[in-house]
UniProtKB/TrEMBL annotation:
A Pfam family annotated for this UniProt entry: PolyA_pol_RNAbd
Primary gene name: pcnB
Keyword Nucleotidyltransferase among UniProt keywords: yes
Keyword Acetylation: no
Biological processes annotated in GO: tRNA processing
GO MF annotations, alphabetized: metal ion binding; nucleotide binding; poly(A) RNA polymerase activity; tRNA binding
Family per record: Belongs to the tRNA nucleotidyltransferase/poly(A) polymerase family.
Keywords of the record: Magnesium, Metal-binding, Nucleotide-binding, Nucleotidyltransferase, RNA-binding, Transferase, tRNA processing
Documented EC number(s): 2.7.7.19
Protein name: Polynucleotide adenylyltransferase
Enzyme class, spelled out: transferase
Domain Poly A polymerase head: 33-155
Cofactor: Mg(2+)
Residue span, tRNA nucleotidyltransferase/poly(A) polymerase RNA and SrmB- binding domain: 190-244
Amino acid sequence: MGKAFPDRLPAASWMQREGMDALVAALGADQMRWVGGAVRDTLLDLPVSDVDVATLHHPQTVINLCTAAGIRTIPTGIEHGTVTAILPGGPVEVTTLRRDVATDGRRATIAFATDWRDDAARRDFTINALYAHPETLTIDDYFGGLSDLAARHVRFIGDAATRIREDHLRILRYVRFRARFGDMKRTDGEAENACHALAHTVEDLSRERIGWELTRIMALPDPTGATDMLMRLDVLHRVVPGLANEATKHLAALVDAEQANDVHPDPVRRLAALIPATSTAAAKLAKALRLSSAQSQALRCLAGRDVDDTAQPRRLAFEHGLECAIGRLLLAGSDLADLLGWAPPAFPLSGSDVLARGVRPGPEVGRVMRTVQDRWIEEDFPPRTRVLTLLEREINKSD
């Protein structure tokens, strides 16, 4: 058991963000509560980025009240009761109290509610169902979330299997929250048995939802406990197509290398550790997780690693970019000394330099440029004066 938490939220800097007082005044303090991650993370003395509000007001009323107070709103999820208030200090999601009418494992049909407990009952874990009054800061804890938070116990609200059948993504969320807030050495038979029995249901989820949750798992300071649990629960191979043999060991080695070299964690790099080092495997995973174009490109680059990467790390960085090179070396367990604190320089030669020395326009210009660039890299990127000497030698050799 950890420290006991008070039933009153400590004052926090996010409450003083510009525009927050105006929002509270517009909605009315008694008609709203801070809820979810902002409350939980404040109690844990963690940084708070996103702020969520639950309110008795219906969405159109929220819009009207904010507009009257000069606060711009965006109906980001109005059909689900959510309106985003655009404050100078950052956006705040304001959601009407809800209860589930029907669920199918992928999405819920909701109705607006008037009871705070009804709204809390539809949330996934007790530690996420903590509500705080914006003025008194008194915490309403309907399902024992404060004691669970103190015990580092990530517990489903109600029956675990029922909650998972309502939304299959809760299996992945359970693992992520266990890894971030829970005690991974603790055994939670009900929750883990339910996740294992319903592991197949994650295959019914949209690729976007799986990709979003899996990349958040990979962004944890150390995701190895989470991936080990996903493996035990028979989930990992269902969300990572083409899972490599000993994938979790590869990931653990990568995390160790990141920490040893003080390199910031990268979710895509960590995904690359889970699959074979082939472009086919990278393309398959990128498609399965609906990764962005930038993420897909990064994954393909990381998957192109081979034994030659360690021979000329600076060549690798010049040809593929510093981030990809660092990632490949980390995945290979190789030394980063040649790359840390170094940035690939621009090639100090242009086509006009070649033309000025009598080479006729055409394919020969490109050939000369490529040859000189290759030698420039082999000589560890010397200055322009040396490159011009290399250029003269290549032109004279061709004559």
